[in-house]
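Hey team,

Filing this mostly as a record. A colleague (T.K.) asked me to run one chain through the structure pipeline before their review meeting, and I want the input and output archived in the tracker in case anyone asks later how it was produced. No errors, nothing strange. Just documentation.

Input sequence:
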Amino acid sequence: MKLVTRFEAASRSTAELHALLTEAFNAFAAAPRGSDQRRDAMASMRNIEDELASRTPSL
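Output structure:
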């Protein structure tokens, strides 16, 4: 999976981000431990989750 940057995540809709998060999770689970693919998938998940959290209205 290609790394999803925070900038790229910001340009996507919330629905697209949820789909990308699922894709990143699956890529993380399938990648060998210690691989670049696993590292990129983890970084993508962090970037996507950070962007989703920034969109959530605070209470």
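Quick notes for T.K.: The chain has one domain: 6-55. Residues 6-55 form one domain.
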